Amino acid sequence: MSVKRVREDLFEEYFTRIEEVLYDEDLRRASDRATETFASRKESSLRSLPYIKYYRKRVREVKAWSIEHLDELIHEFKEKVEDLGGKVYLAKDRSEACRVIGEIVGSGKIVLKSKSMTTEEIELNSYLERLNNTVIETDLGERIVQLLHDKPSHVVVPAVHISRERIAQLFSKVTGKTVPPDPSAIVKVVRGLLRDVYMKADVGISGANALAANTGSIVIVENEGNARFVTNAPPTHVVVCGMEKVVPTLEDAMIITQVLPPHATGQRMTSYISVITGPSSTSDIELISVKGVHGPLELHVVLLDNGRLEMRRDPLFKQALYCIRCGSCLNACPIYQLLGGNYGCKYFGGIGVIWTAFNEGFEKAAPLAFACTLCDRCRMECPLELDVPRMIEKLRGLLSERELIPATLKSATNNILEKGNPLRMD
Ligand code: SF4
């Protein structure tokens, strides 16, 4: 296939998806409700936290230092986890990560998952299902998306594009009883559906918000309490996350947990922060250490590269690795507000364009890069002030060098160069 054909196919597919979502009434309704709620909650939460700006500055410093010293930090983290009886694996790409996790899980197992964008990135669910495992998402949003055979559209609230009316219809179908479009009633139904499954599961798979190199700790921030069950009830716990999540100390990891909630959900603090340091153990019998008491017997941590090291080599794009995935920039992005995030990419908004370019390739990122208005709102809303518009500008230059630009934009550019205006007027 010639480069020209590939390029045209890419843009055409994207334009078709845009047309679809622009006429999606359900998406409009859900997105409008969510946008208003996000903005007002975040504003009032930040007003009540006058010290947050110091924490934000500190998180940026920690992340910048960590990315510069990533190799040493990963080495230290691996050593600490393995001293505690866990195992750490470095996966260079999606297929290696899936293969490693597939070997740990095996087949014919019940696998529970808590929310993890990295498992979406490597398409882990379908891989494990092909190995004849039953995979059950436990985060409410992820479960809704899974039951609808849909895809997440937001890093924090995966089912933000689905209205409560449609969710009620879904659970009415699942349970065979009428579920009203009332969030409390829906949550009660889901609680009942998942309660027993936790104790039957063989493996729990989670992501991580930060990893502390000095203690080998895994830090997970959540509200629902499902991550606690997933990481505690099954005999095996597998953590899957990007290698950029390692920071020097547990204290650094905890500062990230202070900055995330107000920017992600507009809360002062989430309901739960779990700190997991090694598999479950006891020394209660004659001080002899035994692994696996009430919590998991095995702990495995898979650290994913998948383009991250390449990103780190670029002086501007490496900033994207500082991202703490709070989603604040999405909630302010005019393009995201209009189109949502459900158009075939694993990451969304401006920062998602950069991630897509390095995780999935420049061709996949091209249509999204040219959709950005460079309005700068994402940078202003970002707790770390990541300069996403400048990254997108640089990416557009690289895409243009590879001829990965929409035909209309290219002819407009030629017209400007030749005639001084995009319409080719004399
Ligand atoms: S780019 Fe900034 S605002 Fe957007 S998800 Fe990352 S940290 Fe949050």
Broad structural category: alpha/beta
Bound molecules: iron/sulfur cluster
Average pLDDT metric: 92
Strand arrangement in the largest pleated sheet = 1-12-7-4-2-3
Termini separation = 37 Å
- What's the gyration radius in Å? 22 Å
Q: What does the largest sheet look like?
A: 6 strands, parallel
Low-confidence stretches: 1-6
Count of helical segments? Answer: 21
Q: What is the total tally of β strands?
A: 12
Can you tell me the number of structural domains? 2
CATH architecture of the largest domain: 3-Layer(aba) Sandwich
Helicity, in percent?
A: 40-55%
CATH class of the largest domain: Alpha Beta
What form results from the Cα inertia axes? Answer: globular
User: Going by CATH, what is the homologous superfamily of the largest domain?
Assistant: NagB/RpiA/CoA transferase-like
β-strand amount: 5-15%
Oligomer: single chain
- CATH fold category name of the largest domain: Rossmann fold
Detailed description of the structure:
Helix content is 53%, strand content 12%. It has 426 residues and is of the alpha/beta class. It has two domains: 3-47 and 327-419, no CATH class; 52-162 and 202-309, 3-Layer(aba) Sandwich (Rossmann fold), CATH 3.40.50.10420. A six-stranded parallel β-sheet has the order 1-12-7-4-2-3, with helices on both faces. A four-stranded mixed β-sheet has the order 8-5-6-9, sandwiched between helices. β10 and β11 form a beta hairpin. α18 (362-371) packs across α20. The model is unreliable at 1-6 (pLDDT under 50). It binds iron/sulfur cluster.
In short:
The chain has 426 residues and is of the alpha/beta class. It has helices at 3-22, 25-47, 52-68, 70-83, 94-105, 117-121, 124-130, 140-147, 164-175, 183-194, 197-200, 226-232, 250-264, 308-313, 328-332, 334-339, 349-359, 362-371, 377-381, 388-401, 407-419, and strands spanning 87-91, 110-113, 134-137, 203-206, 210-212, 217-222, 236-242, 246-247, 272-276, 281-282, 290-291, 298-304. Strands 1-12-7-4-2-3 form a 6-stranded parallel β-sheet, with helices on both faces. A 4-stranded mixed β-sheet has the order 8-5-6-9, with helices on both faces.
